[in-house]
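Project channel, design review

CF: Before we commit to the Rufibacter radiotolerans constructs, I'd like one complete example in the thread so the newer folks can see what an input/output pair looks like. Taking Peptidase M50.
RD: sounds good, go ahead.
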Amino acid sequence: MKPRHLLHALLFLVTLVTTTLAGAEWRLGKSYFFDQHGFTWAGSLSWEEILQGLPFSLAFLGVLTVHEFGHYFTARYYKVRVTLPYYIPMWLGFTSSIGTMGAFIRIKERIFSRKEFFDIGIAGPFAGFAVALPLLWYGFTHLPPPEYIYQIHPEYQLLGSRYAEFVYQGNGDLSLGRNLLFWIFEQLVADPALLPNRYEIIHYPYLFAGFLALFFTALNLLPIGQLDGGHILYGMMGYERFNRLSPMLFTLFIFYAGLGLIPLDTDLLEYWWLWGGYALYLLIVFKPMFPEVRRSVLIAAGVFSAQIAVQLWWPGVTGYHGWLVFGLVLARAMGIFHPHCPDERPLSKGRIFMGWLALLVFVLCFSPQPFVID
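CF: and here is what came back for Peptidase M50:
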């Protein structure tokens, strides 16, 4: 095995370990470095408990791997030099990570045509989605009995089947948001008597892995910049039209993400630091869109003013502030615009149809508020 292949294999194995640890934490509702007595270097999970994280790690890494190899084999088909997937392990030792920050392949030479960009971009999400569907089917058709949750939260048993009326009081409780495909499985596939509460899906490894698979599929299919969705839309529209549309879509994305961030029902001077920090954030994310600082300031001021106007007209409206972090990554690391390629010939009708199908997959998978903390 070549040294560079050893690196990819090592990163995969480390990520398998970290996602298994994270999967055990989520499934059991425990933190590895914390027990009932507080912090512990010895670890609060036994080997048997850690192994209970394998269903999550194998399911989630399976979808992630298929997604990345969809890109890889398509690139190799077009004789584009490309690396094997680099997996990114990330585990914190308490229940707030999923054990990884994902995976990526690195394309090592210029892509020649819109068709190649389109095919390489669409192959990953379609491959991952094709694996996520049977994973969700299995998860929703093999739900454990309602008493399963009492193994994780014994205190719920004292409250009976109506425990949800008493235990969720907005004290940092985490629930998963809704997407259309999850709703379809809940309505048409699952036994209603076995469906878990939205706050408890994190303890169901196949459902949790399936939800994350849909979340990352939708994230990659955002039609902005050099995301998979950006490659797809660029292939469909071409260089000039796409690079006019992508900044508009990015602006709408930031507009939604920041809605409700500035509280208007309190003393505004009390939150001067939030006003100033958010204004600076807007300048930072919109600066790459324009060579002139003046235009960046104008678009940032326009988005800020529009958000305040919507909040005044519709009190209580809120976007999803977690998207602001991804917006910063898009603007400063991945890019809002798409590079030009030598062959700008339009796509075939078949590929245009596949592009619209990718939009349908995005709509099915996208959650406006994927992770909600009360």
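RD: helpful, thanks. The chain is about 55% helix and 5% strand.
CF: The longest helix spans residues 114-141.
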